[in-house]
Amino acid sequence: MHAFDTKGHKAIEKRAYDLVRSRPGGQTILRELIDSNVLSDDMPSPHSHSPDLSFERQFAQDRQMYHFMADDRSVIRASKYATIESRKEQLLLSSVEGCLKAVYCFFREMVRNPVGESQAGRGIYVLMHIIADSYSTEHATRIGDNTGQLVTIKGWQLSRLWWPPNAKSKNEDNTMCLLHATKGTGDHAWQDGKGTLTPNAEMAAHAIADMIVMTYDAQKAPDRADELIGKYIIKYFRPYNTQVTKKGFAFPEYGKVVPYSYEEYYNDPNNGFAFEFDRFPQYYFVATAGGYYTNEARLGSAGIEFGGYLTPRAADNSRTFLSRISLAYGIAANSIPVAEERYGFPETVRMQAFLIGSTRIPILNASLEPRVGLAAYPFHYDTYFTVPWGADLVWNIGSDWVFPFTAATRTLRFSMGYRHDRTLISVRHFLHIGFGFNSWQGRVSN
């Protein structure tokens, strides 16, 4: 999924730096943001294209605000309305608040702790990416004047195998009204035939340039951060046909107000805003149960498993491919009952250590986690090492909850998978399920 393709994101970011330099004191602004670790020291080398390689956020439906998009459930609900315009309005109404809240909170966190936010996978380049995405005709529709007010926000066609016909209705420019097409024309619409930026891409560059200057201003006067980001959201993310009030964007027809300031939400230490927007895992713990197929019988098994994730790291750096993939290590213990009477409980306890790779599967909204490890039966009289391998499909169930006295949240974790292990006790194939919880990284400290 690319709002603008990689070359487009790079060109827009470079243009934004040129716009900042053209302003009085612009070079000083850029230098001070480099010195304060907001911008990378290799600036003007672009980084805002890199968040597209963060696969957890790319494919997870509850993380589409990283690309200024709607989740598939919102698209389905909006598609039930009678007219194209009412579908667009309903999709905007249901999706814009999550996107604006992410922009607000990430900006506030960046001003407070730019290094920590970057290491947590957010930071200024993620914000640049969100802003540029919002000007792509594949991600959002804006009115065609100099205000660029938002008409609707779109979902991602690749997230489902089937969509109702209303969700795939077309705009005049041949983009879909409610969806980012799998192969959309808007992906490459960042330059014209002469090699210059299109109007939408140019507006995106100006919006990013203003965000850079605003970051500098907020660092100089942190007590103005809420005021600055609120004015910015009004200027660049105002929904069409809304009234700007002290409380937010008012939708008179629907009697709803969408805030442009989330200061109370951001400052409340109990909600942990990053939990709502992030899916970079820390560790998991599950109880497992399943069945082995042996040469003699089909038998049950039970055990426990713990895993810790090593990556991904900062989302603003694409120098190494491995930093874009969730890699994990784990340990497990389980009992493998067998048909032979000579094997009792201690002898059938298997201990193992393993490595996991994890990638999202968009249509299933799940993660595929292949693994390989080293196992042994420490209480067996004839112990030797084996190399079990297999894969799991993993789902995160329900809403996040904050664990007391920690800076992380949990969600329920359900997995189902296959293992192969050629062992002394004739076990070959194993199907299993796991149930427990995942822990996710939280907001960064001051």
Give structural attributes.
alpha+beta; eight-stranded antiparallel barrel; Porin; single chain; 29% helix
Give a written overview of the molecule.
The protein is of the alpha+beta class and 446 residues long. It folds into 2 domains: 6-274, no CATH class; 280-440, Beta Barrel (Porin), CATH 2.40.160. Helices cover 29% and strands 27% of the residues. The chain has 11 helices and 15 strands. The chain has helices at 6-21, 26-35, 55-59, 72-78, 84-112, 114-119, 124-134, 199-220, 225-236, 263-267, 273-277; strands at 140-142, 150-153, 155-156, 179-180, 243-244, 249-251, 256-258, 281-294, 298-309, 326-335, 349-361, 366-376, 389-402, 409-420, 427-440. The strands form 4 sheets. Strands 8-9-10-11-12-13-14-15 form an 8-stranded antiparallel β-barrel. A 3-stranded antiparallel β-sheet has the order 5-6-7, covered by helices on one side. Strand 5 (243-244) and strand 6 (249-251) form a beta hairpin. Helix 1 crosses helix 2, helix 1 (6-21) packs across helix 8 and helix 4 packs antiparallel against helix 5. The protein is globular. The two termini are 33 Å apart. The model has no long low-confidence stretch (mean pLDDT 83).
Topology of this protein?
Elements (H helix, E strand, L loop, with lengths): L5 H16 L4 H10 L19 H5 L12 H7 L5 H29 L1 H6 L4 H11 L5 E3 L7 E4 L1 E2 L22 E2 L18 H22 L4 H12 L6 E2 L4 E3 L4 E3 L4 H5 L5 H5 L3 E14 L3 E12 L16 E10 L13 E13 L4 E11 L12 E14 L6 E12 L6 E14 L6
Parallel strand pairs: 3-4
Antiparallel strand pairs: 1-2, 5-6, 6-7, 8-9, 8-15, 9-10, 10-11, 11-12, 12-13, 13-14, 14-15
